[in-house]
Amino acid sequence: MSEDRSKSDGTVGKALEILDLVASFGRPVRFSDVLERAEFPKATVYRFIQTLTSQGMLSYDPDRQTYALGIRLVRLAHSAWQQSSLAPIARPLIEQLAAEVGETVHLAQLDHAQVLYVDKIDPGRPIEMYSQAGKIGPAYCTGVGKAMMAYLETSHLAGVIEQQSFHVFTEFTLPDEAALRAELIDIRTNGYGFDREEHEPGIICVSLPILTARGRVLGALSVTSSTQRTNLAALEALVPRIRVAANAIAREAESWRFPDQSKIQTVDTAKE
Amino acid sequence: MSEDRSKSDGTVGKALEILDLVASFGRPVRFSDVLERAEFPKATVYRFIQTLTSQGMLSYDPDRQTYALGIRLVRLAHSAWQQSSLAPIARPLIEQLAAEVGETVHLAQLDHAQVLYVDKIDPGRPIEMYSQAGKIGPAYCTGVGKAMMAYLETSHLAGVIEQQSFHVFTEFTLPDEAALRAELIDIRTNGYGFDREEHEPGIICVSLPILTARGRVLGALSVTSSTQRTNLAALEALVPRIRVAANAIAREAESWRFPDQSKIQTVDTAKE
DNA sequence: AAACCAAGTTTCAAATAATGGAACCAAAAT
DNA sequence: ATTTTGGTTCCATTATTTGAAACTTGGTTT
What we know:
2 copies of one chain form a homodimer. By secondary structure, chain A is of the alpha+beta class. Chain A folds into 2 domains: 10-74, Orthogonal Bundle (Arc Repressor Mutant, subunit A), CATH 1.10.10.10; 85-255, GAF domain (Beta-Lactamase, 2-Layer Sandwich). Chain A contains 10 helices and 8 strands. The first copy, chain A, has helices spanning 10-25, 31-37, 42-54, 71-83, 87-101, 143-149, 154-162, 177-190, 232-236, 239-255, and strands at residues 58-61, 66-69, 104-111, 114-121, 136-137, 193-196, 203-211, 217-226. Chain A has a 6-stranded antiparallel sheet with strand order 5-4-3-8-7-6, sandwiched between helices. Chain A is globular and about 60 Å long. The termini of chain A are far apart. Chain A binds a DNA duplex through residues 10-11, 14, 30-32, 35, 40-44, 46-47, 50, 65.
């Protein structure tokens, strides 16, 4: 199910596989824990762990003799979040959106075949960030996931759908590819989609894709609430307002031209 | 100055060097941008970028033909922050501390030879997370940096000091190793240290290390303010309260025993 | 339109680094 | 004192990385 990464990315791919493996434990691990789950021989796993530790991608606790993900990752993520994600651009826009509609707003992007939440604003309560940004979720049963899938090009979409688990979370969870594909056509027709308690009972949302002028999917925006507080029709009424935000984010993301500091003449004598 | 990483970490080290390089631009980059600054030949840089992109560590924008740090990093960092840093443990404790003292509290750890801020609570304003966590700063002229250095073992300390730039930020910046070493002895004697406008004019702080029972440095805590609002003596009065928090964090970090889910019998027939 | 150029991509033999079985070591358990 | 478990090192074999050079592509200039 996830044996595609590292398939032909040589040593680097394998090292990152080990990194993911450590991450998957969700807690500090001993060498033997990793060895057990890894599909490489002892010495190989050992060397990878050494290397990753020396590189700061893993950290070693000498007291407990355990490895955990290293803080170099936190530093890199700081840059990643700033430069690669929509979050820093979108932050002021979704803050205002959340304040106006009075509901939780999610900003998500597609990672591999999963939804990755890059920001969340919950009006009222102070922002808890790390607990949300970086979180991943299934694509086939979340509003943002479906909104993004609806606008993928056919070939890419096929790959993404193939990797959906179609685990049944609630009675409303879309059960299979056929149901999902039908839903995606609907979304494309309307320009927005819903989560009808497909992932968590009582939780509903409207979602819109964030698209470039050329139609490439950048991410998705959703407004989430519960069945107690509101209903789908009320959420649907927010679509125009959300669309304004989504468009604004797309426009800003696209127009973000960077100071052209790369145009410095490169003299060829730069070899010294 | 930073040619130590990847020195003998083979291919993986080199790939991560490229990753850092991309991060260092702070904005999406073209292939040639990277090539220019990298010390590897064209084909090598090219393959690394391909690999990293295919691995999701970099993301490629086909419209602009640029690479940026990938969102897989955000996902990994989410785990890293949770499992490796002190932040999730410390969060409630420093929130309360910030509320009580009414000043900004920083939580930092040492990464390589730099200070890495893993959390920040500013009473009054809502918490901005990724924009702060992950930020790095110099060790020799920040309160948290000096507090941590003061408690490193001699050999480790030497390596860290060697990498300090001793750039002069203000008239109070410690100018050289001798001044720093003297200051570190002071800090060790008192159990806490100050930032006397050494990094930014008008900004002062008290800082305490977070130490394990065995005396290993886990991180540091600081309460920051400005010369307009307060003075060093007033900050010093907060030390006992801060020490409570620092000790609590250390104790919790140490006693955090993880559910013993690794003790599942590993039958050796697991080969199929 | 032809010639040119810059940026990006592919090739392939040589150089280098990764591999992994096995031996080794240390500390804890018996 | 002996065995077991968990971690570390060795080193000949093997596979991968390397990088100069050739090539392709898309955009400019003449």
